[in-house]
Design goal:
Elements: E1 2-5, H1 12-25, H2 33-40, H3 44-54, H4 59-66, H5 79-89, H6 93-102, E2 107-112, H7 116-128, E3 134-137, H8 141-147, E4 152-158, H9 165-175, E5 179-184, E6 197-200, H10 218-236
Parallel strand pairs: 2-3, 2-4, 4-5, 5-6
Antiparallel strand pairs: 1-6
Helix pairs in contact: 2-3, 6-10, 7-10
Amino acid sequence: MLEINMNRNMNPLDLEIHNRIVAECKSNNSLTITEAAGLCHCSPSKISKFVKKLGFNSYKQYRDYLCGRKLEAKPFSDEFERIKHFLDTFDISVVDKFIDKIRPYKKIVLLGYGPSKYCAQYLQFKLQLFTSQAIILIDDERSASSVIDKETIFIIFSATGAYNSFRRFQQIAEEKKAQFLLIVEEYNTSIIPSYGEIIFLTDTFQTLSSVPYEKSRIVFFIFIEEIIAHIIKNKAV
């Protein structure tokens, strides 16, 4: 599980470091941390702290992500085995972090395409039982522009995160000064955020199909159930 946050207190120096490394990685996909430090006129430890600030586990993971380098797929015989691996390695702290992310906002706007829409709809139904926040499910850019504002967190569910329109939704959120959160099931290095946050729920690839609408949404529903269980537990304390 990986959380990438491009809004995490990015100061001008952080932004300069990021932009320089992004530009260099376009022509040098083996850029070392020492070379990156020289390029940015800082120490390797500064680079290491910076990439962890963004949510990456290491400089190598950050570099490989920028270069679009795919993870070597873990071998699973079927989806049951893959889901079991997800459950065995699940970082439960992400659930509480998610609840903390949505708590400050008056509106929670949700979106999903294809089967992912039903995940967004399910979260909408569940959250309405336990919160006074406005929970809104939308379908398109026009709706996003009309309902999103600075008191909104805009959450998109996607199995692969590969839809080009998500970049437009990201732009709308930035223009409206709303928080943007993309929740993706599979780890996808083609998604490089310029604004907002991304949570990759797994570091694996589904075994059933490579076609997005044919992919399973089981991981999303497990994640949602854990969110609601934690909300109920915290209310009872």
